[in-house]
Design goal:
The complex is a heterodimer.
Chain A (H helix, E strand, L loop, with lengths): L1 H43 L4 H28 L6 H17 L1 E4 L2 E4 L21 H31 L4 H23 L14 E3 L3 E3 L1 H23 L1 H11 L1 H6 L4 H26 L6 H15 L5 H17 L9 H15 L10
Antiparallel strand pairs in A: 1-2, 3-4
Helix pairs in contact in A: 1-2, 1-11, 2-6, 2-7, 2-9, 2-10, 2-11, 3-4, 3-5, 3-9, 3-10, 4-5, 4-9, 6-7, 6-9, 7-9, 10-11, 10-12, 11-12
Chain B lengths: L2 E12 L2 E12 L3 E5 L6 H8 L5 E8 L2 E2 L5 H6 L2 E4 L11 H8 L8 H10 L1 H4 L11 H13 L5 E5 L7 H16 L3 E5 L3 H7 L2 E6 L2 E7 H6 L1 H7 L3
Helix pairs in contact in B: 3-6, 6-7
The chains are: A mainly alpha, B alpha/beta.
Chain lengths: ~350, ~240
């Protein structure tokens, strides 16, 4: 009897090992093939081709968001739940810099200044819906978000670091920051959605029955450019290498003489830059909406995990997969299920390939 | 000979647990000093306390005459102290060349020249500069860890059990390399389990036990010491 039980135990262990190995060896390439087939199918199928293209645009925004997420995760070692709401707040900052509008006791008050009062600041450039005013407003938002993030780090996260708090405490604290950011939006700009530029902007017809707005092409271009810039930063500059070193082993980074607090400050600045730009682009693609920050958090996490936490190129690919899957799913399910699609992808990845498609270290 | 590193009456430990109850060691210019002792004697704790990784509760650390007690590691490396931890002492996803660059992070004048010198010392690393450190074998990793700490050309190098988990052949090569580093002028404070090998390489030695100094003296003398032989050398 005892020998039978032992044999059963051994068999069970072997099966478990086999499943683990199979998971590693098969799941990676199999998922790649699966995603590639689905992407090509949806791009070729005339019914979903337009959705595919929109998915690429949405994926671009997710890419910027999840790249910031992956950076803060790598250096600070916690999932920042405030990322989506901070993105939205960045969008609102740009809105404020552009229009000077803020919610008063009886509706909006408009400040006497605002970048849109500069000459020709809102005239569309090359078919875009916005002019140079929004570009300057984005720069203002980047600066404001960087300063705000540094302040939050000093007040909240640095205190936790000094107490050597666990990762869960950090994440819950970031949830608090998320709620605070959303409340700031509600207090200053109210619950109603807002847009940078109102009016109708016709889409351009492209070959293969695709229509795309100039703004959407701009979003795609911005995402690809920023992905390249972040990769160059991480792999070609001293600061970027120190960031990767810290992500690898913070203690050894300190021992090597790297001032880790300084690297953390730079990480917040770079992360906030991506956050603010992603927020502005998100508002261009859809609108400024206080609830959107939390809705977008799930696809951002799905993209970052899919791409393997810590890799900007991975975040781009992961974001494209999530964005395209969500948009193409509209052809099959009601659009209300879009967040569900991100959820399903996230669960599958965590089950089959927890280190991401690229197999980076967790 | 001038004393380059001195720790006086160090009391330190983790949280509530006091591990060192007043340990003193000193290293002279160009000297190689071994710290040996049984498991739990506080050898690694001593290095961590000297390097500012653990708070020194009582006692003092002097680097070239200047008091540096409880100074943060990034300040200490600037003052000429280097430290190689026992484990996790390379950045696995960084290439060999990036690991060395990080070792020289605080250098203002760039790492180029020093990089060449360090590659000369470790020719086996020079041939694989673009390889990720995570792919190296245990022995090569220890070489890279040493090389990383040498990037700042430290006055004193603290080595925490460099031979742990290496094959006997690799231990020989590694100790040979450590000897070369010492001959080039770097003073070394070496914590070792491999007491016999460490003592035969070093000038002087300290024996720690239960967080206190037990014995000290010329390495040769310690090797021949009956008590040391019985307790730590398995003679």
């Amino acid at each position: 009897m005892a020998t039978l039980e032992a044999a059963y135990g051994r068999l069970r262990d072997q099966l478990r090992d086999l499943r683990r190995v199979a998971g590693h060896v098969i799941a990676g390439p199999a998922l790649w093939v699966l995603f590639a087939v689905l992407a090509v199918y949806s791009a070729v199928n005339p019914d979903t081709r337009q959705l595919f293209v929109v998915g690429v645009v949405v994926g671009s925004i997710y890419a910027l968001g999840s790249m910031g997420l992956t950076l803060t995760y790598g250096i600070l070692k916690f999932g920042n739940f405030a990322h989506g709401d901070m993105m939205m707040l960045g969008g609102y900052f740009a809105f404020f810099a552009l229009t000077g509008q803020i919610l008063g006791e009886r509706g909006d008050i408009e400040a006497s200044w605002g970048l849109d009062s500069l000459p020709a600041a809102t005239d569309g450039i090359a078919g875009l819906s916005f002019g140079y005013g929004l570009i300057i407003a984005t720069v203002v938002a980047v600066a404001a978000m960087s300063a705000l993030s540094l302040g939050i780090d000093r007040a909240v996260y640095r205190t936790l670091r000094r107490r050597k708090s666990g990762i869960v405490i950090f994440s819950i604290a970031s949830l608090g920051v998320a709620i605070a950011a959303r409340s700031v939006i509600l207090i200053f700009w109210g619950p109603d959605p807002r847009v940078f530029v109102s009016g109708i902007h016709p889409a351009k017809s492209l070959p293969f029955d695709i229509t795309l707005k100039a703004d959407q092409m701009f979003i795609l271009g911005a995402a690809v450019t920023l992905t390249i810039l972040v990769s160059l930063l991480l792999y070609r500059t001293k600061l970027g290498k120190a960031m990767r070193a810290m992500s690898d082993n913070p203690d050894l980074a300190r021992i090597s003489g790297i001032n880790t607090e300084r690297i953390i400050r730079w990480t917040w600045i770079i992360g906030s830059t991506l956050v603010a730009i992603a927020g502005v682009l998100l508002a261009l693609q859809s609108q400024l909406n206080p609830q959107l920050g939390f809705v977008i958090l799930l696809p951002l996490f799905a993209s970052a995990i899919l791409g393997g936490v810590g890799s900007p190129a991975g975040a781009l690919v992961g974001a494209m997969i999530v964005g395209i899957s969500q948009e193409v799913s509209i052809d099959y399910f009601a659009p209300g299920y879009k967040p569900g699609v991100a959820f399903v992808i996230l669960i599958f990845i965590l089950l089959l390939r927890p280190n991401g498609l690229f197999g980076a270290k967790a | 000979m001038k004393v380059v590193l001195e720790a006086r009456g160090i009391v330190s430990g983790y949280d509530e647990v006091e591990i060192l109850h007043g340990v003193s060691v000193s290293v002279h210019e160009g000297e190689m000093v071994a710290v040996i002792g049984p498991n739990g004697a506080g050898k690694s704790t001593l290095l961590r306390a000297i390097f500012g990784l653990l708070p020194v509760r009582s006692g003092a650390v002097f680097l070239q005459g200047e008091e540096v007690t409880n100074l943060q590691p990034d300040r200490l490396v600037g003052k000429g102290l280097g430290y190689v931890p026992q484990v996790e002492n390379v950045f696995p996803t960084l290439t060999i060349s990036e690991n060395l660059e990080m070792g020289g992070f605080v250098r203002r004048d760039g790492v180029g020249q020093r990089l060449d010198q360090v590659y000369d010392l470790f020719p086996d690393l020079a041939g694989r500069r673009q390889e990720k450190a995570g792919r190296l074998s245990g022995g090569q990793r220890q070489m890279l860890a040493l090389a990383r700490a040498l990037m700042l050309d430290p006055q004193v190098l603290l080595l925490d059990e460099p031979s742990a988990s290496l094959s006997p052949k690799m231990v020989g090569t590694l100790f040979e390399r450590i000897g070369e580093i010492n001959k080039s002028g770097t003073a070394i404070l070496l914590v070792e389990q491999n007491a016999r090998e460490a003592l035969s390489l070093c000038h002087r030695g300290y024996v720690l036990a239960m967080g206190l100094n037990r014995l000290e003296g010329e390495a040769r003398g310690l090797l021949d010491n009956e008590e040391v032989g019985k307790l730590y050398l398995g003679a």
